[in-house]
Design brief:
The complex is a heterodimer of chains A (572) and B (337). Chain A has helices spanning 3-23, 45-48, 51-57, 114-125, 176-179, 191-195, 241-249, 264-271, 322-330, 334-341, 372-381, 409-425, 436-439, 470-473, 499-509, 514-530, and strands at residues 31-36, 65-67, 73-75, 95-99, 140-147, 150-155, 203-209, 213-218, 232-237, 256-257, 276-291, 346-348, 385-386, 392-394, 397-398, 400-406, 428-434, 457-462, 534-547, 550-551, 569-570. With 572 residues, chain A is an alpha+beta fold. In chain A, strands 1, 7, 8, 9, 10, 11, 12, 16, 17, 18 and 19 form an eleven-stranded mixed β-sheet that branches. In chain A, strands 4-6-5 form a three-stranded antiparallel β-sheet, with helices on one face. In chain A, strands 13-14-15 form a three-stranded antiparallel β-sheet, with no helix packed on it. The radius of gyration of chain A is 26 Å and the shape is globular. In chain A, helix 7 (241-249) packs parallel to helix 8 (264-271) and helix 15 (499-509) runs antiparallel to helix 16. Chain B is an all-alpha fold and 337 residues long. Chain B folds into two domains: 2-84, no CATH class; 107-330, MetI-like (MetI-like fold, Orthogonal Bundle). In chain B, helix 4 (106-141) runs antiparallel to helix 5 (146-160), helix 5 crosses helix 7 and helix 6 (163-177) runs antiparallel to helix 7. Classes of the chains: A alpha+beta (572), B mainly alpha (337). At the A-B interface, helix 6, strand 9, helix 7, helix 13 and strand 18 of A face helix 2, helix 4, helix 6 and helix 11 of B. Chain A: Belongs to the bacterial solute-binding protein 5 family. Chain A: It is found in: Periplasm. Chain A: It comes from Thermohalobaculum xanthum.
Chain lengths: 572, 337
Amino acid sequence: MTPLRRLLVASVACAALTATAAQAQRGADGQLNIIYWQAPSTMNPFLSGGTKEVEASSMVLEPLASYDNDGNIVPRLAVQLPTVENRGVSPDLKTITWDLKPGIKWSDGTDFTAEDAVFTWKYCTAPDGGCAQASYFEGVANMEAVDALTLKITFDEPKPFPYTALVGAESPIIQKKQFENCMGAKAPECTAQNFNPIGTGPFVVKEFRANDVITLEANPNYREADKPRFQTVLFKGGGDAASAARSVLETGEFDYAWNLQIEPEVLTRMEAAGKGKVVSAFATSVERILMNFTNPDPALGPDDRSVYKADGSNPHPILNDVRVRKALSMAIDRPLLTEIGYGRTGRPVCNVLPGPEQYASTANDGCLVQDIEGAKKLLDEAGWVPGADGVRVKDGRRLSLLYQTSTNSVRQSFQSLIKQWWAELGVETELRNISASVFFGGDPASPDTFQKFYSDVEMYTNNFSGVDPEAYMAQWRCDDIPGPSTQWQGSNINRYCNPEYDALTVQMSKTADLNERAELAKKMNDVLMQDYVLLPLIYRSGTSAHSNTLGGVRMNDWDSELWNIADWHRVK
Amino acid sequence: MARYALRRLLIAIPTLLAISFIIFALLDLAPSDPTANLPLTIPPEVREKIRLSLGMGEPFVVRYFKWLEQFMVNEPLNVLEQWTGWTIGDSENRLRVLSWATRSPVVDLIVERLPQTLWVVGMSYVIAVVIAVPIGVISAYRQYSLFDQIGTFISMLGFSIPTFFTGLLLIVIFSVWLGWLPSIYDTTHVVRDWDSFVFQVKQMIMPTMVLALANASQISRFMRASMLDNLTQDYVRTARAKGLRERVVVLTHVLRNSLIPVVTVIALGVPTIFGGAIITEQIFRVNGIGQLLIIGIEGADIPLVQTLTFIFAILIVLFNLIADLIYGMLDPRIRYD
């Protein structure tokens, strides 16, 4: 490029920049129409915990820091991310000090201070409040406002990963003045506050109609003078995923549609209309099959059925053998499942911890190839020989499994495919599906919950919020096994107990260095995978669609999808 | 007649109390959990606290009587206060029936949704009746004529094709292909001038027509059958022999007598207007009462479902009574005193 040319290009670029700067003005782009086919029921994420409420409120309420679309923590109301290096985190890892950005105002014009952050902690931890995000404040011994712009959080124990409280869309900061009289048992009575929270975010609620529609307008006190670019937002809820996709991709009535879990070919066909595009982002969701390590025999009494006994007296009669578990995994064609159920919105996966990238192991990728013959050989080795009707038998017991999951068309087609592959091995499978509200419900009296696990294998998706896998990987600890003594509460649904694994989780809770933590997390993942405790199937993405006239969308599955809505704008 | 109506109303009270108990008990015994739809990342201890904060820890009887008091005493007092502006007792701290999902008063949610339900579902019912009665009359009077054949054909279509299919079909034709009508109902739309009225009509056409087709086919079949029964009666021959004009014979004598069974069908259909049209509302996102009910059921929002179901029960009892009273007006032989 000659100097003259370079100059010319530079001046053209400058002209282009000033042109956009002149246009960029708060509210210049009119109305933004968003459709969530599950309608939000409240704007207070502390009272709901559902994804739809968290995302809707993320337009109004903000945390100290968010996760960007690559899973990095980015400061939002804080000046910077506190670390040990910049002395924001104390060397003993027991305190973290956040410096807040000066000059931030609530949408009612009052100043945002560290007192509001302290109040949010008190609000969520108040007894009888039933705060849905209480786990974010676990381990917080105290929060204090050192001054108006400095927030100091003290933990009970050293916290290697201190970015939990008030980080991410699930634990944003609410205004003290507004919610002061709504603590604890009074929280649900504050309908006006819960529906119209005052926030620091780019938008303000104008009218909230529960489970139907929210109208919002640009926050006049938003800290960036030229944002948000949209003057109003219409946030419509209701209906189903397919028609939400249609309203963006085919009729163009809406600009953004959320959570489009629909058949891949339907989505592709709609996209072909050329009005918008489908975007997806991967974080930590994995569809998996869990193996039951205890005996779920219906003949056993309530104190024995699917109950873990520390002396090892109640093992699963079939799945206790790792060779059987491995054979079941080898028979599954994960790429085919992905193609049928998810298309572009899923990937075949061999890890229970698929992300963030530095935490993802590569040691187990062999599972991507189906190996029916190898699986048969393993079962032969394990002593299971084909019987007269093709079903394998050992010591008079048939290799027969009960396979349960929630009612959902993709899950049912997975069930029938997997049943077929297992049948090729000589495994008989009985299928069962249970309404999601019962299956995922915590009713200890119901025999059909996933926690009770009254079947041999079960399938569902799990994930973790944020980017730190410590709590997620600690799910498989021996002391977290659900049973009658804990009212069937506990996260170790598999009833897996391995002292070596427990030791790794303890080690992780004491390690602060992020690289070492990543190594430990990978190691734990590999233990679970190589012991075939659970069979990961699909790495699931968050999938949404936006119109071609909507710019600035950076699809994010680590945080709210609307995390950068202040930057969204109309493309002309 | 007034004494009869009063007696029926009094009998309705124990009936409704029994219904309220059955509804409450059934929903309470059904396995469901309001925290079931929350992400799995929310730990079980937190879920337990949420359930306790919703009052699920209390015994069944306590919750039933609390709900009964809130619904039968507190809510009517509230409505009264709102209408009259009076303050009765300690209205600040009076407990209202709160929805578990939204944590807001159930009655407010219902009131918020009534307009769109009444507009769309109510309008479709009115249209259905207006279309169906003449079609039924003409079809019966000219039995097996071309008009009757076409009417029969269309009502068979309306009967047999479910609304979720006709609804989708209309959306694909009028919203996707032609782009004439919106596929999503805007509940925030306010009619201010001619243009906004046109928009309101546009967004109501598809859901209203889908429902009207289904309702009209049913009512027109009843009307036709009932007319056919009456047209062959002796009193019709007598009327004709008296030299009455055909118009008078059909419209005054036959129609009036044929309306009796049809009135039952129409009157008992009215409560379903308030119940909304679950599927149609869902397809067009009218987000009325029907959609509120289905969301409540999916999210195990028990207080919401209990209250809505009970309101439907009240309406059904009420319209049964109204249908009985209308018989008395149509047929002088029926006397209630």
